Amino acid sequence: MSKLHLGFGLTLAIAIFSYAPDAAAIKVTRDPNPPAPAAVAPQPAAVAKPAAPAPHLPAFTAAQIADKNVAARGGLKAWRAVKTLTLSGKLDAGGKKPTQLPVTMQAKRPHKERVLVEFAGQTALQVFDGAKGWTYRPYLGRSSAEPFSPEEQRKSAANDELDGPLIDYAAKGSRIELEGTEMVEGNATYRLKVTRKDGVQRHVWIDGKTFLESKIEGNPHHFDGKMRGVQSYLRDYRSVDGLMIPFESETRLEGVRATHKLTLEKVEINPTIEDSAFSKPEPLTASATKAAHSPALTAAGAPH
């Protein structure tokens, strides 16, 4: 399993597809003596489709677009006041039979993240305390938490804070550039490139009318022997305590037909989450699993 990425409102959902147990547990076996391929009649060479023209949008600078995005999402003051965030919903895990897995995601400044995924009657965990991370995957027969692999550690370090890459970008030491305009799911968007102070880069597509994120680039994911680009399409924005949150995200892996959709059912702003929730996880018994999802553990006294 790898890192989960909705700026935790945006950033957290970006790589959740790779956290799905389905993707990690399936082993592909190839026939050592495959039948000879059937003869195929020659086909005419495919003609490349011309690139869609860049849409026309009002001329704003990258900084102006970022400011409009911050205002559309609820304002800088409101996002600075967010110290913790809990998202819960269902993850489309793919596979031969459509499967939806209950998911709970938590974030706490600075850079702490915790993910619980229920699968086949068991609860898998992924935790990052801001410096170190662990995964607990009982569905793979693992009896204890394991430290992050180098790739998981790299992805966690590359993830944005819970408010995403554009909120307070200058204070975080990031630079933004306007690279042009582009159509995303039938809507004209501005394409921004964000370069963090540690050199990590990602692209963000901002809707030209709503100024909310339409698409965001995730950390590259190693799949089928190669690194592949990751992009999440963000939809169904709703206001939660004055903050605009996308309740649906669809993550696509470059060169892979299948996609994974995350549908949120509940969002909690500033629930109480103890720092101990982000320490190395212990194996969960049935009672511990119930407690792990209990509002009393994570959202005592939380505003709704």
What does this protein structure show overall?
A hairpin with a 2-residue loop joins strand 13 and strand 14 (243-253). By secondary structure, the protein is mainly beta. The strands form two sheets. Strands 6-5-4-3-2-1-15-14-13-10-9-8-7 form a 13-stranded antiparallel sheet, sandwiched between helices. The chain has a single domain (11-24, 57-298), classed as outer membrane lipoprotein receptor (LolB), chain A, CATH 2.50.20. Mean pLDDT is 78; it is low at 1-32, 285-291 and 295-304. It is built from six helices and 15 strands. The relative contact order is 0.20.
Task: Give me the secondary-structure topology.
Blueprint: H1 21-25, H2 62-73, H3 76-80, E1 84-92, E2 100-108, E3 112-119, E4 122-128, E5 133-136, E6 146-147, H4 150-158, E7 175-184, E8 187-195, E9 201-207, E10 213-217, E11 221-223, E12 226-228, E13 230-240, E14 243-253, E15 259-269, H5 286-292, H6 295-298
Antiparallel strand pairs: 1-2, 1-15, 2-3, 3-4, 4-5, 5-6, 7-8, 8-9, 9-10, 10-13, 11-12, 13-14, 14-15
